[in-house]
Amino acid sequence: MPQTASAFADVAASDAALRRFLHGLPGVDAVGLQARAAALATRSIKTTAKAYAIDLAISMVDLTTLEGADTAGKVRSLCAKGRVPDPADRSTPRVAAVCVYPDMVPVARQALAGTEIKVASVATAFPSGRAALPVRLADTRDAVAAGADEIDMVIDRGAFLSGRYLQVHDEIRAVKAECARPGGEPDAHLKVIFENGELATYDNIRRASWLAMLAGADFIKTSTGKVAVNATLPGTLLMLEAVRDFHAATGTRVGVKPAGGIRTTKDAIRYLVLVNETLGADWLSPDRFRFGASSLLNDLLMQRQKLSSGRYSGPDYVTVD
């Protein structure tokens, strides 16, 4: 029978115990993992199933702007697009969230008022995570106080790659504590970003997945989108398998968010196939799976218009991010 996640509390009792547990996880068969991801990527989805998949993918998008040149006007424009992705077809689903830097949270909160769209904010010295823990905690606290429903944090990759697993675990727990709201309001959900492209090995991605879930992550996320290698099908499949195994062991459901480099409808559908084949229909929901993207929504809208009209309209027929 599944146990609660607290059954693993002794794992994090010491750095040595956590290291033994993480290094005791089965090694990843890289060839097998890549072959499985490649095979699932060949699945073909047509007609009504494709239409369903496109609408599902739109509803899972975290529409994102994370640039130094972001302005309040740009954030409001992005929120307007999230609320009404296709003004010519009001049946188009809304996105799951709009993701911004902490100082833009109040702007997004106001622009999304009255909708179910979440305000997500990166924090903890995104994207590098290179700041003292009190600074990263203050970053999180400010975003939550400003109204963020979700926090996307980055782990200290230097600490992780140096084997300081307990430090990373405790920092995730400390950030999670800052996601609490007073007065019985729902806590902000915590998405923990690994930056898979910097973790170098599949074994490290599996260890990071378990480490974050043991520390209380609500979602595990592949990447910041700010490095050369971001979300990949094999890396995401490995994280989905870790979530499956964690759920089997604890009964706790953790979400997954691939981010960076997912730009086309074909890409999005491949990821949905991975989710369905690995975790099943329970994870085919914005509550359990998200796409971190800035340009994906445009292609989803163009493909949706093509299915309904029979014509491929091109990028000039969707709103610009």
From TrEMBL:
Enzyme Commission number(s): 4.1.2.4
An example Gene Ontology CC term for this record: cytoplasm
Family matches, as Gene3D superfamilies: Aldolase class I
Known pathway: Carbohydrate degradation; 2-deoxy-D-ribose 1-phosphate degradation; D-glyceraldehyde 3-phosphate and acetaldehyde from 2-deoxy-alpha-D-ribose 1-phosphate: step 2/2
InterPro entries in UniProt: Aldolase_TIM, DeoC, DeoC/FbaB/LacD_aldolase
PANTHER family xref list: DEOXYRIBOSE-PHOSPHATE ALDOLASE
Protein name: Deoxyribose-phosphate aldolase
Organismal lineage: Bacteria, Bacillati, Actinomycetota, Actinomycetes, Kitasatosporales
